[in-house]
Amino acid sequence: MDIFDKLRVEEGALGQHSHLPKDYFMFPKLEGEIAPRMRFNGKEVLTWSLNNYLGLANHPEIRKVDAQAAADWGLAYPMGARMMSGNSVHHIELEERLAEFIDKEAVMLLNYGYQGVLSIIDAVVDRKDVIVYDAESHACIIDGVRLHMGKRFVFPHNNIENLEKQLQRAEKITEETQGGILVITEGVFGMSGNMGKLREIVALKEKYQFRLLVDDAHGFGTMGETGAGTGEKLGVQDDIDIYFSTFAKSMASIGAFVGGVKPIVDYLRYTMRSQIFAKTLPMPLVIGAIKRLELLKTRPELKNNLWKIVNALQSGLKEHGFDIGTTQSPVTPVLFHGGIGEGANMAMDLRENYNIFCSMVIYPVVPKDVIMLRLIPTAVHTLEDVSETIKAFAAVKHKLDTGVYKREEIIAVTK
Ligand SMILES: Cc1ncc(COP(=O)(O)O)c(C=O)c1O
Predict the structure, then answer these.
(1) Pair 31, 70 in one domain
(2) Can you give the pTM of this predicted structure?
(3) C-beta of 196 in contact with ligand 1 (< 6 A)
(4) 138 lines ligand 1 (CB under 6 A)
């Protein structure tokens, strides 16, 4: 059989929606400067779908440093993988600053979070070890777990009772194999906005021997007194054995890092295949990250603004009777009952007639009869943006409830 014949028939979980209007739901083109107001499909929209939590993406000081670093260094330097020829004093400086900020002995930079997480997992466990992980984990964790040659047990999202059962199963196996246990969860889950139950997980260390890896992609910069993340917020930073975050969210850039005690971070430097066999972060990203970290540390107003918007949006939505699930973070899912077609009509109506751009999350991420519109507030949104959005949501919810969106095919609905 020709493999391509199969691919033409089986389009994949997301590809099956490729008949939807081109570059509309999938691969939409948001144009203009990164800001709450951007252009989509020929007109201005209020955007709630960028993980630019602190508004750093287009901060004038950041833009200046990014541009200067690109002019000074270009995008090539340093060439090669970090271990071979891709190191610099600035890479080391950024690692030291990050380690100090997240209160870990050492930090290693990673050239993208996705490969980073996958590769951390790959480096830490071998076939004798057992992985226990949260069912709502990000794809990079799931794919890291897939690489694992030993046993892996999943616990229902944030279900500590079940986690304990999985730890007991894991212990039985490691007693035989003489291996260890790695528990993996997230600081803030990117879809529900829930925090991982880190305190409860850490408490289980009294009864079971395991190491804890936390992916804090959405928590770094948004959670905790200083913005150092969910471990800081919950007072368990010391008990997170391997702390990971990406530059793709609060830092509004590319790259990521992993922190922990020095011998383990050093082990990772010599072992992580995604770093040994791939190019290092180019200098503008490193120098840009140093500047971003400086603003993150010295401008508390950025995080305060973010939370002002988060609180206004989430309490406003709740007051208007919307279901925002169980979020404990800036991630704001708004949940409705309805099919994919209705959801698409509603999201389209929001974009076309209310100028609100947000992402629609569909099955299999949510059940088939649930529509999730996910809002990501940022420090650069305003309270007016919030009230405009709640008004628009009230209007489309009324249409959903009265069956306006129950159409066979997806078409723009007019006011
Ligand atoms: C929880 C989580 N982990 C890891 C990643 C991957 O990070 P990156 O975009 O740096 O590859 C993301 C998304 O960006 C994420 O949401």
Answers:
(1) no
(2) 0.96
(3) no
(4) yes
